[in-house]
Amino acid sequence: MKTLVLSSLFILLFTGCIQDSRQLTKEECERGGYKYATEKKLNYRTGKYELKFICLNKIK
């Protein structure tokens, strides 16, 4: 019973990590009037390039 409760708790906690947050940040940037951009950054630990999503200055 204890393992069932713990495993279901972990499943509920980590389901938010599975969802793609890039779309959410793009919508939030555009809603706030910011410009949305992606940059290719090097991850020094893995040696691979990853995409970084940022909100830039407000659109004039």
UniProtKB/TrEMBL annotation:
Domain of life: Bacteria
Name this protein carries in UniProt: Lipoprotein
The species this protein was found in: Arcobacter acticola
